[in-house]
Design goal:
Number of helices: 17
Strand content: 15-25%
Family: Belongs to the glycosyl hydrolase 13 family.
Distance between the termini: 26 Å
GO cellular component, one term: cytoplasm
CATH architecture of the largest domain: Alpha-Beta Barrel
Low-confidence stretches: none
Helix content: 25-40%
Number of domains: 4
Bound molecules: 1-O-alpha-D-glucopyranosyl-D-fructose
GO molecular function, one term: alpha,alpha-phosphotrehalase activity
Keywords: Glycosidase, Hydrolase
Largest sheet: 8 strands, parallel
Mean pLDDT: 97
Number of strands: 20
CATH topology of the largest domain: TIM Barrel
CATH superfamily of the largest domain: Glycosidases
EC number: 3.2.1.93
Shape: globular
CATH class of the largest domain: Alpha Beta
Strand order of the largest sheet: 11-10-9-3-2-1-13-12
């Protein structure tokens, strides 16, 4: 594996930097910020989709896989972005949405026109005898997962929005189209691919009601998913070891992820799984809140780290992305211990075994948006669930509290570059409101500033390159019973590392029977390793020794 010590920076182009002041971030804006990303020290830039799209799901509804949406720029600008990034030793990772297309894609339009070839690119099925949908499956964005087409007296499947029709991967012509699309971008010098909800691409042969749930058990990690991934690996990116791939796995299992990202699986380089980001879901329901379950969080980290390492499989390590609330607000303390908790959370992830992903703004401790009015929201899922929760009779005050905690718009507010109007993101009107705290939390306030969150992230990246143990070391849990500290040990050849993370705003003690370590990183003034260590609120410490 040639990617163990690499770090990926995720950009949501719509919110990163607006070079032409139309209120939307764009590709030229990313070019203009490449020096910043080089300073940070990242190796890859993952950009969420910027292909032509009606933007119903902010680009995850793709209408043309081989072009650039004019909102974001041109193919010439994209090719320049690749070239300029390469000059800075940064490679580009594209986000490929192959579970579904936009219903405005020409394939779906031809299907609607009755062309059988293209109807077979999707899942069109007759309804039940009573005329209702083929199954009771529920879309991830609420409502039934089937949409009726009167002209055919049939329904088509959409696991997400009704404008996102699921592709039929059982059809070899669909797989051929996907192979061609991947080759098109590989030929342009793209050296990374993120595959959106790729563990949903294999559907059952027969569609039936789910009497126990929302239908996901029928299509998640489906019967042919590994076969399909092996096929596209072998026909495209598997031919070039410089290309890294990551699969977004929705509601998956460790057994499957060991296969998806096994060193010898010839499927993907690594996986995103989300179990650690559901420990604050009451009854495992995203839109029901509960305080996060710290012991479950630790247990999940330990299980996945050990499980994947035992099978030489590779994790993507992350807290944040464009679908998740900001981690410093979610699991940290964005008020009294904003800096300390942001640094602690970063350390907890970056010192583990896997490839860390930094989501834009995470490196400066950007917080949730705390919007107070539904008109401030833009995300289709958030707006749908505002209406669903209202229909369920919830008070608006409670609904706004839930949205403030859960909405995907929390992570989609524009990047906060400086204290100027609109945080330096645009000179126009931003598509989504800038967060109120941008004058305090922005790049300019932190870059080159000792002790800032930004400089701390730079140090985490530097350590990953300087200490092979971080990329190559084994992982073993420490203090599994401790109720406020997440600790683990790394070992590699004659070196070892101990990482301690106090997840709470109270001081706590830990006993370690280890000696001879020196502290190489902390979010508090340095302290030696004594037998009894007192960790201050949200204190993190990284100890290292060469035996
Ligand atoms: O996300 C799929 C996914 O599992 C999460 O989006 C989650 O289900 C959703 O946020 C509801 O909680 C991927 C993309 O990351 C997301 O932005 C897209 O909306 C989705 O797929 C459909 O393409």
């Amino acid at each position: 594996m040639n990617f163990e010590n690499k770090v990926v920076y995720q950009i949501y182009p719509k919110s990163f930097y607006d070079s032409d002041n139309d209120g939307l971030g764009d590709l030229q804006g990313i070019i203009e910020k490449l020096d910043y990303l080089q300073y940070l020290g990242v190796d890859y830039i993952w950009m969420t989709p910027f292909f032509p799209s009606p933007q119903r799901d902010n680009g995850y509804d793709v209408a043309d896989y081989r072009a650039i949406d004019p909102r974001y720029g041109t193919m010439e600008i994209f090719e320049n972005l690749i070239k300029e990034a390469k000059k800075r030793n940064i490679d580009i990772m594209l986000d490929m949405v192959f579970n579904h297309t936009s219903t405005e894609h020409v394939w779906f339009q031809k299907a609607l026109a009755g062309e059988e070839k293209y109807k077979n690119y999707y899942y069109f099925r007759k309804g039940k005898q009573d005329g209702s949908a083929p199954t009771n499956w529920i879309s991830k964005f609420g409502g039934n997962a089937w949409e009726y087409v009167e002209a055919f007296d049939e329904y088509y499947l959409h696991l997400f929005d009704k404008t996102q029709a699921d592709l039929n991967w059982e059809n070899p012509e669909v797989r051929d189209e996907i192979v061609d699309i991947l080759k098109f971008w590989m030929d342009k010098g793209v050296y990374g691919f993120r595959f959106d909800v790729v563990n949903l691409i294999s559907k059952p042969e027969y569609f039936e009601d789910d009497e126990e749930g929302d239908g996901r058990r029928f299509y998640t990690d489906g019967r042919h998913v590994h076969e399909f991934l092996k096929e596209i690996n072998e026909r495209t990116f598997g031919k070039d070891e410089r290309i890294i791939t990551v699969g977004e796995m929705s509601s998956t299992s460790l057994d499957n992820c060991v296969k998806y990202a096994g060193a010898d699986s010839h499927e993907l380089s690594m996986v995103f799984q989300f179990h650690h980001l559901k420990v604050d879901y009451k009854n495992k329901q995203k839109w029901e809140l509960q305080p996060f379950d710290f012991m479950e969080l630790k247990q999940l980290f330990d299980t996945w780290q050990i499980g994947m390492q035992e099978h030489h499989a590779w994790n993507a390590l992350f807290w944040c992305n464009h679908d998740q609330p900001r981690v410093v607000s979610r699991f940290g303390n964005d008020q009294q211990y904003h800096v300390e908790s942001a640094k602690m959370l970063a350390t907890a992830i970056h010192m583990m075994r896997g490839t860390p992903y930094i989501y834009q703004g995470e490196e400066i401790g950007m917080t949730n948006a705390y919007f107070t009015n539904i008109h401030e929201y833009r995300d289709v899922e958030s707006i749908n669930y505002f209406n669903i929760l209202k229909a369920e009779g919830k008070e608006e005050k409670e609904i706004y509290h839930i949205l403030q905690e859960r909405s995907r718009d929390n992570s989609r507010t524009p990047m906060q570059w400086n204290q100027e109007a609109q945080a330096g993101f645009t000179k126009g009107t931003p598509w989504l409101q800038i967060i109120y705290n941008y004058k305090e939390i922005n790049v300019e306030n932190q870059i080159h500033k000792e002790g800032s969150i930004l400089e701390y992230y730079r140090e985490l990246i530097r350590l990953r390159k300087a200490y092979p143990i971080i990329a190559k070391g084994s992982y073993e849990p420490l203090l599994p019973e401790h109720t406020s500290v997440f600790a683990y040990k790394r070992v590699y050849e004659n070196t070892s590392m101990i990482v301690l993370n106090n997840f709470y705003d109270t001081e706590t003690k830990v006993q370690l029977s280890e000696t001879g370590y020196k502290e190489i990183l902390s979010n508090y003034p340095h302290a030696d390793m004594e037998e009894t260590i007192v960790l201050r609120p949200y204190e993190t410490r990284v100890y290292y020794k060469e035996n």
